[in-house]
Structures are given as C-alpha cells and as structure tokens.
Amino acid sequence: MILPIYIYGHPILRKEAKDIDSSYLNLKELIDNMFETMYNADGVGLAGPQVGLDDRIFVIDLAPLADEENPEYREFKKVFINARIINRTGEITNFEEGCLSIPGVNESVPRKDTIEIEYLDENLEPHHDTFTGFPARVIQHEYDHINGILFVDHISAIRKRLIKSKLTTMSKGKVSCHYKVRTA
To answer: Annotated catalytic sites, by residue?
Structure first.
C-alpha cells in the first residue's frame, strides 16, 4: 500500500523516533509499504517519520542508481531498525541532496564519508557495519530523519535564507508532487 509522504512543516518530521521491539505489529507489512511508497515517489530512501510514524526505521534501495561505475548499488537494499551511528570518520564531502519530504529543493550538504552503524534488519537480527561514500551519505540522511533532523538543517545560513520562501510555502501546505503527500 502506498502511504502519504509527510511534507516539510509537519511536526512529525521534527520528532525523535522511538525504538521498535519484537512486539511491533505488522512490521513486515510496514516495511513492504515503505519500499512501495519510496519506489512510487522515485526515492532511494524513506524513514518512518516521512510516513507519519515516530518509529526508528528507514529503508534504502540504491538499485535505481546502479551503473557501470557503481554496479554494487544493484544489491544495496536494506532495512535499518533502531539504528545508531557509532562513529563518523573520514573526509567531509559536499554533495547535493534532495528529500521526498522537501520536494523541489536540492542543496549541497557536508557529511563525513564513512560511518560505523549498529542496527537491526527486517528480521530484527543485529548488525554492526561500516559504510563509505554514497551509501554512507544516504544512510546519514535517513538516520537524520529518525532524529528529527532534515537535510536543510545542515546547509549554510545564506542558503537557508535563499530557500526560506519555498520552505514557508511548503509548510503552509502548498506543494505539488507526483506522489501522495500529507501536509501540516
């Protein structure tokens, strides 16, 4: 089932999400719905708060970005539950990011290029992994969502001023998307 994506200005996007435990009802169905919603919106990542849930869950599938230079993206489909980034290391790189919850806005965001993260997968099995490069960036973007942080929080004050009117308009519910949305 395709869920509505919550848009900038909705309070759920600023709420810190809660852990999920083994008694969580319909977890598999939620995961399937999150992937279906993400694919419908042409995204590569989607977090619980973006579909109105204050649960520490996000999904990522980099397959749409796979090419000759990055064939490994074809196999990068993951579920992250109760994720905690343990360490961020390496170079700080800037890369243009966008977000399904902030449609039409893309900004250069600085992030460390390597992360160490602990999480549970879709079967609630624990993992402790290190990711680098673009996968690390996407994970950090989605991880921010479960902590009430949006990518625009990482941009310079000047850039924030330049996009302020777009964000204000969006927070008033004026947004046009090809996917189902929910505004504040």
So the answer is: 142
